[in-house]
Amino acid sequence: MEKEYLIKLEKVNELRLEDAERENVLAFFEKRAEDLASLEEVETSNITRMVHVMPITAGIREDVAIKKFERDDLQKGAPETTDGYWQVPRLVE
Amino acid sequence: MKTFINKTDSKLTNLVAFDDMILTTELPTTAGSKMLDGYVSLFEAEVVNKLKKAGYNLAGKVNVGEFNVDLMGETSYFGAVTDESGNLVGAISEVMKDTDIVATIAVDVNGAQRRAVMATDLVYLKPTYGTVSRFGIIPTACSGESVCVIARNASDLEKILNVIAGHDDKDGTSIDDSRMNSEKASAKAIEKVAFLKDMFAISEKDACEAKKALESVGVATADIDSGVLSKAGSAWNILMSAELTNNVSRYDGVKFGYRSSNYTNIDELYTNSRTEAFGELLKTAILYGSEVLSTNNYDKMYDKSLRVRRVISEAMDSIFAEYDAIALPVASKKVFTAKDVADNAYLAYEESRFTAISTIVGLPTIVKCGYQIIGRAFAENALLDLLRKIEKEGA
User: Partner of B79 at 20 to 30 A CA spacing, among A59, B133, B219, B226?
Assistant: First the structure.
């Protein structure tokens, strides 16, 4: 993987690494290529994906609105609020 | 160095501790991350509710590595827990030392808790996936993470399991009680255990001690090759990272958690908040997960890992047709030092080869003295019976 591509990945994930960190991450990605090579040894062309490890019946709850929390409570952990709204920087100038 | 992130009144009795991935209303839940430092949930996890209703009291919140994906808590924002010699000890074992705490309830994502107890007298149980509700657990890798219990003996593990097990409508992956009960009723006692000889060959832990302990309680042992089970670590690394990337995308500095003070627009708010709050291992895992899920790699990495998971599950079924359980070491080393993780910050991704074997297929596992024993699905009671016999023999 090239450094430029890694920077693109950082952007997609809203992260920014220092150059020294980038070197570590690139080395990590190289090491993980061994994981991939190891998996390629397993024949899986006629195998179905296993998404759930136990057979489950997805539970569908009644479509009923339940008010569990007050807005003030929900905003207690917010970094910044104004008049009951989550505050973010201006999006449109 | 912190063992408890927050602690309640220690004069209470019937104490249980929770690792800092499990939501509680009376104490903050941080996931070992600066991102959630001081975060207090509005609701409690189902395991907390159940234990409180059964008369247990919250002792406090136990330090964890950031989102529980590391080796033994070394990536916690609150610091790694080490002894005087610089060995990583894991906050759980320190918290349980010389206290009245009956058990610690934790979330096993990548085996950190198993490694934390491997050099101690504590015992560990990870029940079958879906047996214990994951409602109210900070999600990391939902398809394999499980609530686990750490205690001093089989009897305490069983007591806690009996309280926390059971169907929960609030968790979409929770197993129906009727199925759980019928599977448990038909579970077979453990009489024959297969030892994964190639896993012991790459570990400092010798198989002899475990074989002797099992044979002393009348259990037959035999060596087998791990075969495709040796691919579990590689597949889990991919699945865990992909799921982690999605699960931590919600932390953006807007609705809750850490917000950087250094921003002039919304993009800078997101990027600086996440960059300043997440540690290096987590950032690396996020980037790797994102790469796994990218258009170019989805089929050859993510989809492939899901297929390999099926192959591993079928291989397990074949082993369980002949044996009642599988034994292997918890890790490559008996003890990990702070230097080990300083030299290789990604050691957890290498050590997952031992712990991912049961995680990736959600099978019940017990740990004692650095050995793991994996049972058939819903064979928790058989595993606990075996542990009780070993304890009785003093083996």
Answer: B133
On the CB side of A88, how many CA atoms lie within 13 Å of its CA? Answer: 15
Query: Nearest-CA neighbor of B92 among B113, B71, B66?
Result: B113
Residue written as tokens 């990536």? B75
Percent of chain B with pLDDT over 70: 99
User: Which 276-315 residues of chain B touch chain A by CB within 8 A?
Assistant: 278, 280, 283-284, 286-288, 290-291, 300-301, 303-311, 313
**Closest listed residue to residue B207, CA positions, set B373, B30, B3:** B373
End-to-end alpha-carbon separation of chain B, Å? 34
Compare all CA atoms of chain B with the CA of A17 and give the residue at the minimum distance.
Answer: B275
Under CATH, to which class is B4-235+299-393 assigned? alpha beta
Q: Which amino acid is at B343?
A: D
The model's confidence at residue A58, banded by pLDDT at 50, 70 and 90, is: low
Which own/partner pairs from B208-213 qualify as long-range (CB within 8 Å, at least 24 positions apart)?
Answer: B209/B369, B209/B371, B210/B327, B210/B369, B210/B371, B212/B395, B213/B390, B213/B393, B213/B395
Closest CA–CA distance from residue B221 to any residue of chain A (Å): 27
Return the closest-CA partner of residue B242 out of A35, A60, A7.
Answer: A35
Bridge partners of residue B17, in order along the sequence: B60, B104
Q: What is the mean pLDDT of residues B107-111?
A: 98
Tell me the residue ranges of DSSP E strands in B20-145: 57-62, 103-108, 123-126
Condensed to tens digits (0 to 9), the pLDDT of residues A70-80 reads 999 999 999 99
Instruction: Count CB atoms within 10 A of the CB of residue B293.
Output: 17
> B171 to each of B2, B16, B261, B293, how far by Cα in Å?
31, 22, 36, 25
Contact state of A88 with B266 under an 8 Å Cβ cutoff: yes
Q: Map tokens 């090759």 to a residue.
A: B225
Q: Characterize A9-33 residue by residue with b for buried, 16 or more Cβ atoms within 10 angstroms of its Cβ, and e for exposed.
A: bbeebbbbbeeebeebbeebbeebe
Q: Do B130 and A54 touch (CB under 8 A)?
A: yes
Find all residues with CB under 8 Å of A18, minimum gap 6, and list them: none
The tokens 């509710």 sit on which residue?
B49
**Which of B226, B287, B300, B312 would best serve as a mutation to test chain A binding (most A beta carbons within 10 A)?**
B287
Distance CA B113, CA B372 (A): 12
